[in-house]
UniProtKB/TrEMBL annotation:
InterPro entries: PEBP, PEBP-like_sf, YbhB_YbcL/LppC-like. This is YbhB/YbcL family Raf kinase inhibitor-like protein. CDD domains: PEBP_bact_arch (cd00865). Belongs to the UPF0098 family. Gene3D superfamilies: PEBP-like.
Length: 183
């Protein structure tokens, strides 16, 4: 299944391939991708991408739940300035426990913005009871500049605003989660 680009309404761009050994497009997240409070491990999934435009200069990764009961969704992870040589991340690369300011296995030049819990790391899924099925949109953005210059304390929405003007192509995997899904 190829997930449609959830950001196409802001301007269609070509899509490239995003795969994972930890999750399947259109299927429920594994327990490991749920937050600890929901019975999971809070691990970001393994991600690999290919087929992006040759003029790509860097990548950004965003993970967003548009179904969170907030009126504005919920940002789980936002990473910018990944070098063009980085085309995969291992499981739990988004862990704040393993690196200093950039999280787990991310390169030092990566910019990890605070998520909705104000942590510069991956926040696992944790849909509240009674809110139905949530979609988790894992998006890798192929970017036309090596560095997006924003304040490291910016919100993921600020990164998204800047990506609007610098995205050459996107790769999308969308998984689902429900209350109690990690148990």
């Amino acid at each position: 299944m190829t997930t449609p680009d959830p950001l196409a309404r802001f301007g269609a761009v070509p899509q490239f391939t995003l795969t994972s050994t930890d999750m399947t497009d259109g299927q429920p997240l594994a327990a490991a991708q749920f937050c600890v409070d929901a019975g999971g491990l809070g691990q970001s999934p393994q991600l690999t991408w290919s087929g992006f435009p040759p003029e790509t200069k860097s990548f950004a990764i965003t993970v967003y739940d548009p179904d969170a009961p907030t009126g504005s969704g919920f940002w789980h992870w936002a990473v910018g300035n990944l070098p063009v040589t980085v085309t995969s991340l291992p499981t739990d690369a988004g862990s704040a426990r393993v690196g200093a300011s950039t999280g787990g296995a991310l390169p030092p030049e990566a910019l990890v913005l605070p998520n909705e819990t104000r942590q510069a790391s991956f926040a696992g899924a944790g849909p509240p009871e009674g809110t139905g099925t949530h979609r988790y949109q894992f998006i890798v953005h192929a970017v036309d500049v090596p560095v997006i210059e924003i304040d490291p304390q910016s919100t993921p929405a600020v990164l998204g605003f800047n990506l609007h003007f610098h995205t050459l192509a996107r790769a999308v995997l969308e998984a689902t989660g429900t209350f109690g899904g990690a148990r």
